[in-house]
Design goal:
about 0% strand, Non-ribosomal Peptide Synthetase Peptidyl Carrier Protein, Chain A, 2 domains, 2 strands, mainly alpha, single chain, Serine Threonine Protein Phosphatase 5, Tetratricopeptide repeat
Length: about 290
């Protein structure tokens, strides 16, 4: 950033509009990373806004996000002059991110959608996936958790098929944030519907056991979800531990989240993959839990 003006001047002398567009995107990204790094600074959480150190930090944060947006807008203009859709798309992604952190959701979605269209037009799959994952991050910021989770999980599946590690990690980070938000909600309801004790016999009547889910249907669903998360097309062995056939700790979080949404009325414990490591064990657990009165 120190030599920003000098570098731009050299690009202009060389009449290198593409190089100047790339330079401005790099500058925009540097300012944005400075802003995001500042979010973890202890001064960000200090309430005393009159403190000189806090005031200086706040100014740095405002300047960083402002400069990022300004540089990204210049980069977009330059990219349009080169008619390079990939450069236009990546500039729009930066603009969408700035809008997102500023709480301008509609503007963020618009810029993201424009970027997505550019990438789709030229068949740029990596950035297309990044744009879709950014959509999940924007949705999360708007408190649309289910939508964010669905989009992030879809992105993970596509990233694995494409072997795109960066896009996969981006989507997994969003899933992990959602999972940490949902953790306090996973405590099971231990209440039971009971009829008062009979005055004559002193017996207690408990609600009858429910029929429960069909084991074959549950097995088919669990198998399908496991294959999608692991990223394989072939059938998986029902008795083999999933953690031994391609599922890692991050994909296990995704697997449990999808199961929770799919198997309504069944609460999946955080330790699901350790307590019930194979597909057959998970199916047995789900079927038995579905029989319990709620």
């Amino acid at each position: 950033m120190k030599f920003e003006s000098e570098a731009r001047s050299l690009c202009r002398k060389a009449e290198d509009k593409r190089g100047e567009a790339v330079l401005m995107q790099t500058i925009a990204q540097a300012h944005f990373e400075k802003f995001t790094k500042g979010l973890s600074d202890p001064r960000e959480r200090m309430a005393d806004k009159k403190n000189p150190a806090v005031k200086a930090h706040d100014k740095m944060m405002r300047d960083s996000i402002k400069n990022s947006f300004k540089a990204a807008k210049v980069a977009l203009t330059l990219a349009k002059n080169t008619d390079n859709k990939e450069l236009q798309g990546t500039a729009l992604l930066l603009i969408a991110r700035v809008h997102m952190v500023n709480g301008r959701d509609k503007e963020a979605i618009k810029a993201k959608d424009e970027a997505l269209q550019h990438f789709s037009d030229i068949g740029e799959k990596h950035y297309e996936l990044i744009a879709k994952t950014l959509g999940a991050e924007i949705a999360l910021g708007m408190k649309k958790v289910d939508q964010a989770l669905s989009q992030a999980e879809e992105a993970v599946g596509k990233a694995r098929k494409m072997k795109d590690a960066n896009a996969e990690q981006y989507a997994i980070d969003i899933i992990n944030i959602i999972s940490s938000m949902q953790a306090p909600m996973m405590v099971e309801d231990q209440s039971f519907d009971m009829v008062p004790m009979s005055a004559a016999g002193g017996e207690v009547a408990v609600a009858a056991e429910l029929p429960g889910l069909d084991a074959n249907q549950v097995r088919e669903q669990v198998m399908g979800i496991a294959r999608e998360v692991v990223g394989v097309d072939d059938a998986l062995y029902s008795d083999s531990p999933l953690m031994e056939i391609g599922m890692d700790s991050l994909s296990a979080v995704q697997f449990r989240n999808i199961l929770t949404r799919t198997m309504e009325g069944v609460s999946m414990p955080a330790s699901l993959m350790f307590d019930y490591p194979s597909i057959n064990q998970i199916v047995d657990f789900v079927v038995e839990e579905s029989k319990k009165p709620r």
